[in-house]
Design goal:
The chain is an alpha+beta fold. It folds into 2 domains: 57 residues, no CATH class; 176 residues, Sulfite Oxidase, Chain A, domain 2 (Alpha-Beta Complex). 30% of the residues lie in helices and 22% in strands. It contains 6 helices and 10 strands. The strands form 2 sheets. Strands 2-1-10-5-6 form a 5-stranded mixed sheet. Strands 3, 4, 7, 8 and 9 form a 5-stranded antiparallel sheet that branches. The two termini are 20 Å apart. The N terminus is likely disordered. The structure holds the ligand Nc1nc2c(c(=O)[nH]1)N[C@H]1C(S)=C(S)[C@@H](COP(=O)(O)O)O[C@H]1N2 and molybdenum atom. Molybdenum atom (MO) binds next to loops.
Length: 254
């Protein structure tokens, strides 16, 4: 992993150097004016993060789509990252077929709510065949079935001042956030199906978030809590995700 961080640092530092100091200053001014500063920007490494996030937000339409693939391109081998939750609560829900499982949505919403799996499955379901890339260098293509995060957020009514959507795994081991435009993007999914089956245990049963326009670590598995905020302060170390402290940027757009 340290090799990877070094490489990432080299790339971002190189980007900042290539843009020239004037370029970085200009990007920072534009980013600041339009509020495109990612939460984990700091120092020269931060200049690269700001450039990436701001450039994506300025150059790409907010609704640019991740590529979708055909069924014949679905990967035969699908790696797994991490373990499924080991908590008693999760084991109990799993044993009960997730009948008692709930997804809680709170924070800056008009109607905080808890959705059972059955509630979620009553919303319009979509499928997408998309690529998921891990920052460690492996990737796969799978068909995901689920509901759009935007449909769920519209059901609870997000407040006008909302900026960030946090999502947290049931054992609180993995958590992350995206901005409201990414949360409302039509390909941002709460997935309950994978390759024609219920989502397998290792891939995030019963619900995982899928953000196909960002690297795999943003697609948190076993999500049971979503909270909408206008700040990142007071959540973990305030950087929007557990990833920045491990050397991975909050914004992982691809
Ligand atoms: N809860 C949880 N979500 C997680 C992880 C994890 O360990 N726990 N790993 C992340 C990483 S680094 C990647 S690349 C993808 C891997 O997804 P997969 O295990 O379905 O292949 O899940 C992400 N979401
Ligand atoms: Mo990953």
């Amino acid at each position: 992993m340290s090799e990877l961080i070094t490489r990432r640092k080299l790339i971002t530092t190189g980007l900042a150097t290539a843009a020239g100091l004037a370029g970085v200053a200009a990007a920072a001014t534009i980013a600041d004016r339009y509020g495109f500063i990612p939460p984990d920007h700091r120092g020269i490494f931060g200049a690269g993060e700001t450039l990436t996030y701001a450039a994506q937000r300025i150059l790409m339409s907010r609704h640019s789509m991740a590529r979708e693939f055909s069924r014949s391109e679905i990967s035969k081998v699908v790696p797994v990252n991490g373990k499924h939750p080991q908590t008693d609560e999760y084991q109990r829900l799993l044993a009960g077929g997730f009948a008692d499982w709930k997804l809680t949505i709170d924070g800056l919403v008009a109607r905080p709510a808890s959705f059972s799996l059955a509630d979620l499955k009553r919303l319009p379901a979509y499928t997408q065949i998309t690529h998921q890339a891990c920052e460690e260098g492996w990737s796969f293509i799978a068909e995901w079935k689920g509901v759009r995060l935007s449909d769920v957020l519209n059901a609870v009514g997000i407040a006008p001042q909302a900026k960030w959507v946090f999502y947290i795994s049931i054992d609180k081991d993995w958590w992350d956030s995206i901005d409201v435009p990414d949360a409302m993007h039509p390909q941002t999914f709460l997935a309950f199906g994978m390759n024609g089956q219920e989502i397998p245990l290792d891939h995030g049963a019963p619900i995982r978030l899928r953000v196909p326009r960002q690297l795999g670590y943003k697609s948190v598995k076993f999500v049971n809590h979503i909270t909408v905020t206008d700040t990142m302060k007071g959540i973990g170390d305030g950087l929007g995700s557990g990833s920045p402290s491990a050397g991975y940027s909050w914004y992982a757009g691809i």
